[in-house]
Every structure is written in C-alpha cells, then in structure tokens.
Design a protein that fits this description.
There is one protein chain. With about 280 residues, this protein is an alpha+beta fold. The protein has helices at about 1-20, 20-30, 75, 110, 130-140, 145-150, 255-279; strands at about 45-50, 55-60, 70, 80, 90-95, 105-110, 115-120, 125, 155-160, 165-170, 185, 190-200, 200-210, 220-235, 240-245, 245-255. It has seven helices and 16 strands. β2 (about 55-60) and β3 (about 70) form a beta hairpin. The chain is elongated and about 70 Å long. Mean pLDDT is about 80; it is low at about 1-15.
C-alpha cells in the first residue's frame, strides 16, 4: 500500500512538472515528425518542463518516457543556450559525447520559429565593373527622382513554421522583360521550402519555381539545395546566423503579407517607370 502511495505521488509530481503527458506527447508529435528529420541528426527533441534554469534543462523527450534533467552550465557559459526556454517550449539539445546528462547546446525551437528579416538595397547594373572613381561620380550625379524611384530598400527573409516547412519573405516572382530595362538589380533571394536542425546547425532548403505547363497556374519547386549555417545568437527579436567567416543579423517580423505586398508594389512601380523610359 505504501509503495502504491509513493508511486502515485511520483506520478502526480511528474504531471505537475510537465503537464498532462498525453497532451504533451500529442503536441510533440505535431511539432516533430521523425520521418522528416535529417539523416545523421543527433539532436534530442522535446518540450521544456518546469525546473529549467540557467544551469539545468528538464526535457520531456519526443521519443517518450519521463522528463530528463540535463546539466547546461558549460553551455550557458559558452553562450550555446540559444533562446530562453520556457515551460512548454519545443527545444532541441546536443548532448555531450562523454556525459549523456550534459547538454553542450540548447536551441529553443519555438523561439527560432517565426519570420526573420533583413534589409537589402539594390545595386546599379554593372556597377561593380566601374572604377571606384566612376562609381562615386555616378552616385553623386544621380538625379533625386532616379534615387527615389530605384534606390528603394526591400525586406528579405524567411518564415520558419511547424513540420519543418519554410517560406521566403519579400520574394517577388519574375515579372517580364521589363526587368532588363531597370537600371538597378536587387540581390537574389532563394525560394525557401523547408528548414531543419542538424547537430545544432540550421539547414535551409531552397529551390527554383517551375510552372507545370506553359499555361498552367500550378507550380513545383525543382533543383533543391541545402544551405547549412551556425546559429550564433538567438534571443527575443534578434537572430544571427553565420557561415564560414560571414554572418548576418535578422530581426523578427509578424506581418509577412504586408512585407510581400510592399515588395511587389516596389517591383511593379519600378517596372512601370522603366517602361515609360523606354518609350
């Protein structure tokens, strides 16, 4: 009888610490589809439970079982706790090779999800082919009306969603040959379709948009490729990604449709202006 009482108290404590395990398990299955995980990924996925601090992570693992307590003291010191895990957050852990109860990296995947943007400026076509002296002269002599029409910043970025799906932000479909008439060109933006975590790194999948037929409205994404980058910083509305010796900072946005609409408006106005100048 005493043993049953003790077991009951332990079970009750577990439920209090991490909510209803059945509901939590269903939530985990919605967040993480094991069939979609990348081959060779050693990340441990689960939900953060009550008891998480700057030195400890309590994780309800995706594969089932009771919550597990992991030491993250060194990860915190090394700035490898990316995000600020809260109870119920979907997180990923990279475990220490020598101690399975120590996490070398913590990623708050719920905090990583969302829309991340950065600002880009167009370049004058063939600008890089000019000498520095001519570049300065061109910018100095450029009429204000041309600056106002063509040198307009855009927001680029991506949205990371559930089930490892991704979407480009600020992407404008190719319009027509009028783009050839424009005196400026914007940096290329990849068409993102998926995202994954692979051993603590962010992997973004992108491809090329192709129509299924000449007059078809249906499109497919072909020639997909993966870009792998390090998550250098993640906290609140700030994200920094790095690859090699380069890094880029992002800020969080919520109004994806407004960003895309604005990008299309800019492209349409510039195409209209280019058409007028060719007449």
């Amino acid at each position: 009888m005493l043993k049953n009482i003790i077991l009951g108290l332990v079970a009750a404590a577990t439920i209090v610490a991490c909510g209803d395990k059945k509901d939590m398990k269903e939530e985990l299955q919605k967040m993480t589809n094991d069939e979609l995980l990348l081959k060779g990924d050693s990340t441990i996925y689960g939900l953060a439970c009550e008891g998480c601090t700057d030195s400890v992570i309590v994780l309800l693992p995706n594969h089932g079982g009771d919550p597990v307590r992991y030491d993250i003291i060194d990860a915190f010191r090394n700035k490898r706790v990316l995000g600020k895990p809260k109870v119920g957050d979907w997180i990923g852990l990279i475990l220490n090779q020598h101690d399975s109860l120590v996490a070398d990296m913590v990623i708050d995947l719920d905090e990583l999800k969302g829309t991340w943007c950065y600002v880009v400026m167009p370049k004058i076509k063939d600008y890089d082919k000019l000498s520095p002296r001519l570049q300065r002269r061109m910018l100095r002599d450029m009429p204000d009306s041309v600056r106002e029409t063509y040198l307009i910043p855009r927001e680029y970025g991506f949205s990371l969603k559930r089930q490892w799906t991704a979407q480009s932000v600020g992407w404008v479909p190719p319009q027509n040959a009028l783009e050839d008439e424009s005196p400026v060109v914007y940096p290329s933006l990849k068409l993102f379709t998926e995202w994954h975590i692979w051993n603590g790194k962010l992997v973004m999948t992108s491809g090329e948009l192709r129509a299924k037929g000449k007059d078809s409205q249906e499109v497919t994404v072909e020639n997909t490729e993966n870009d792998t980058c390090d998550i250098l910083y993640l906290r609140g509305d700030s994200l920094v990604l790095g690859a090699g010796n380069q890094s880029r900072s992002y800020y969080r946005r919520t109004n994806v449709e407004d960003i895309n609409k604005r990008a299309r408006e800019i492209a349409t106005e510039q195409a209209r202006k280019a058409l007028e100048e060719t007449r």
